Write a sequence for this structure.
């Protein structure tokens, strides 16, 4: 069994876990999972994530407003977010970004992302970035703001991944690397340097083969690690060891606390 798996991006506050959340998060420790970053999608999700981190010592929270929640933002949202980011369980601002796949007005997404990138810089916090069908505009904003952080569930080209790495950011890869049509993720997996790669689930979504179509959880990173390790010429265990170290480095965590 692969051990020391650090899931750099999950959503255990999602309703998909309502029936067995506590039991699952307890069992995952015995299935090789040593750490989880639970990313928020809005302010209420951030509060739930913080509560999970308080309940489970190996979980940490991120607080942020997802682009698909841009139409829920009020004049008080940034102040509320600022307060949540000061909670000791919160290690990042996220997930934030751009999503042009769904019909959320871009004129709402851009100012929300700009405000959150500026807040992250002010508070010296890493960001967890969502980028779906918005690669060009996202790259321009990253060049402008130069944040610390990770582009999670990376879906751009290998060339874009190299640009992201040049900006000092990390690249997060998950279950998509195991899909039959996984051309781009595997090309990305082959070029990202060892010290800039993170593994993630995006649980309950993006479940890797052979469990695609079922609910995802952090232990299934083992299948993603096996596939990515093949294209990198290493072992799944070695890859999980490296990405655990990277996750702790990015989010300012003591790796000894997660082994």
């Amino acid at each position: 069994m692969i051990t020391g798996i650090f899931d750099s991006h999950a959503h255990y506050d999602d309703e998909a876990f309502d029936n067995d959340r506590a039991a699952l998060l307890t069992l995952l420790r015995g299935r090789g999972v040593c750490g989880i970053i639970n990313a928020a999608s809005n302010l209420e999700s951030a509060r739930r994530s913080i509560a999970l981190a308080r309940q489970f010592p190996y979980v940490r929270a991120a607080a942020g407003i997802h682009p698909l929640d841009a139409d829920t933002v009020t004049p008080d949202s940034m102040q509320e977010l600022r307060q949540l980011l000061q909670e000791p369980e919160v290690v990042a601002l996220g997930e934030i970004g751009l999503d042009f796949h769904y019909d959320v007005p871009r004129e709402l997404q851009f100012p929300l992302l700009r405000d959150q990138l500026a807040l992250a810089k002010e508070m010296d916090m890493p960001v967890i970035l969502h980028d779906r069908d918005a690669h060009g505009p996202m790259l321009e904003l990253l060049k402008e703001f130069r944040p610390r952080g990770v582009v999670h569930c990376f879906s751009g080209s290998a060339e874009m991944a190299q640009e992201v790495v040049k900006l000092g950011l990390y690249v997060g890869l998950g279950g998509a690397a195991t899909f039959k049509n996984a051309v781009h993720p595997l090309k990305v997996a082959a070029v990202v340097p060892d010290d800039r790669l993170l593994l993630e689930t995006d649980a309950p979504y993006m479940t890797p083969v052979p469990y695609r179509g079922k609910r995802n959880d952090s232990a299934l990173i083992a299948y993603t690690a096996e596939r990515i390790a093949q294209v990198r010429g290493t072992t799944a265990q070695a890859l999980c060891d490296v990405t655990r170290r990277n996750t702790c480095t990015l989010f300012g965590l003591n790796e000894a606390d997660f082994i």
Summary: Strands lie at 5-10, 33-38, 59-63, 90-99, 127-132, 149-151, 170-173, 197-199. DSSP finds nine helices and eight strands in the chain. The first strand starts at residue 5 and ends at 10.
